[in-house]
Design brief:
With about 425 residues, this protein is of the alpha+beta class. The chain contains 16 helices and 17 strands. The chain folds into two domains: about 5-175 and about 345-415, Thiolase/Chalcone synthase (Peroxisomal Thiolase, Chain A, domain 1, 3-Layer(aba) Sandwich); about 180-335, 3-Layer(aba) Sandwich (Peroxisomal Thiolase, Chain A, domain 1), CATH 3.40.47.10. It has helices at about 20-30, 35-40, 55-65, 70-75, 95-100, 120-130, 205-225, 245-260, 265-275, 285, 295-305, 310, 340-345, 345-350, 360-370, 385-390, and strands at about 5-15, 20, 45, 75-80, 110, 140-145, 165-170, 175-190, 195-200, 200-205, 240, 315-320, 325-335, 355, 380, 400-405, 410-415. Its EC number is 2.3.3.10.
């Protein structure tokens, strides 16, 4: 078996151009104030009427593609989009993304779906393909992209829900993260904790989802230790990066693993969380849950919020979970130079440029954005406020926007 060094060469995050205060949303919905602090949320990205999963995916991936040489761009022969927000029962998001990124026609593309696990599963399958060496120098582009226009029906999930995409360029020259061959543990089974039976309707059982997340965490880590003998949760990983629906859930997950596999006093567990986990949650606190992109947003947060000395070369324990459900605990190492490589994406700078919505503005836009995934023969897109939101991002280049729908065909433009 080949053990070629494969991993994430570059990473970028696009989290939209608008946001809302989590506290403002929480208070306006009349939710129990005693539960707010457990969310560990400050604000969240908000989808606008001209944004959909295609625009998110393209806007996340374009800076990575534009930075490549012509030869490297043409070496991308696998493109996979991961999304719970598909636009068509047959045609994949990846076809639109391939077109607007200008990738080579010598490219295999497709879409995967497994809730919040999809992008990790696609990454691991891509790594196996690249590690085979059948096409030396080949690269893969994995993009997690979702819009989540939940309304008051979602209750406590609404303030935690994000919007956006994370793009991962995968190849044999990891500049961000090197995967550890064979270091993984899996746990998957069918459960109806969440589902999306219609484009604008979500079924959500928060208690069952929490239990499934935690059960999969313990069992996938146990499977990891069987595959990697001698693993110690407290000592084998310098940092731990998990799928992050909201920070409070990750805090509970870390506490559970420590109690089961590395018992410590409560104070020591809390200190371990602050040292090994908390840095990965900082972007999630201001973006929200990006579904299958959430774990990769957490990785970006860890690298951007630690010194190069503390994070480069660090051994990571990573946990990916997707409702339905599938999960994986896997090992990886942060690449030398990762902080500078990721810094080129200027993620924090772009997050700060998002315009904050009032709750009244949010409520006015929400019905429009909730319908954006529902098939309709003709759709006009109100772009009267577009320049107000896009102008602060001009130094970062143009963005792809949804311009309208004609005969069910979605039309996109660069603005």
């Amino acid at each position: 078996m080949s053990t070629a060094r494969i991993g994430v060469e570059a990473l970028n995050v696009h989290a939209g151009v608008a946001k809302i205060s989590a506290r403002a949303l929480f208070d306006a919905r009349g939710l129990d104030p005693d539960r707010f602090d457990n969310l560990m949320m400050d604000e969240r990205s908000v989808q606008l009427p001209w944004e959909d999963p295609v625009t998110g995916a393209v806007n996340a991936a374009k800076p990575l593609v534009d930075a490549l040489s012509d030869d490297d761009r043409d070496s991308i022969e696998l493109l996979v989009t991961s999304s719970e927000s598909g636009l068509d029962y047959s045609k994949s998001l990846a076809s639109h993304v391939h077109r607007h990124l200008g990738l080579s026609r010598q490219c295999r593309y497709m879409e995967v779906k497994q809730a919040c696990y999809g992008a990790t599963g696609a990454l691991q399958l891509a790594a196996g393909y690249l590690r085979s060496g059948l096409r030396p120098g080949a690269k893969a582009l994995i993009i997690a992209t979702d819009v989540n226009p939940m309304d008051e029906y979602a209750k406590y999930a609404e303030p935690t829900t994000g919007h956006g995409a994370v793009a991962l360029l995968v190849g044999d020259s990891p500049g961000i993260l090197a995967l550890t061959p064979g270091a993984y543990g899996l746990n998957s089974f069918e459960v109806m904790d969440t589902a999306r039976p219609a484009p604008d309707y979500d079924l959500y059982n928060p208690d069952l989802s929490l239990l499934a997340y935690l059960e999969c965490l313990s069992d996938s880590f146990r499977a990891y230790t069987a595959n990697v003998p001698g693993t110690d949760f407290a000592d084998s990983f310098d940092h731990v990066v998990m799928h992050t629906p909201f920070g409070g859930m990750v805090r509970a997950a870390h506490r559970k693993l420590m109690r089961e596999f590395a018992p410590r006093a409560p104070k020591a567990i809390a200190e371990d969380f602050e040292r090994r986990v908390a840095p990965s949650l900082r972007y999630g606190r201001v973006v929200g849950n990006l579904c299958s992109g959430a774990i990769w947003l957490a990785l970006a947060s860890l690298i951007d919020h630690q010194s190069a000395e503390r994070v480069e070369g660090a051994r990571l324990g990573m946990y990916s979970y997707g409702s339905g459900c599938a999960s994986e605990f896997f090992g990886a190492t942060v690449a030398p130079g990762a902080k500078a490589t990721l810094g080129k994406a200027r993620i924090a700078e772009r997050l700060a440029l998002r315009r904050e919505l009032t709750f009244a503005e949010y409520e006015q836009m929400l019905p429009v954005t909730r319908r954006i995934l529902v098939p309709k023969a003709h759709r006009d897109v109100d772009d009267s406020l577009q320049e107000t939101f896009l102008a602060p991002f001009r130094d970062h280049g143009k963005q792809l926007v949804l311009a309208g729908v004609e005969n069910y065909i979605r039309r996109y433009e660069w603005r």
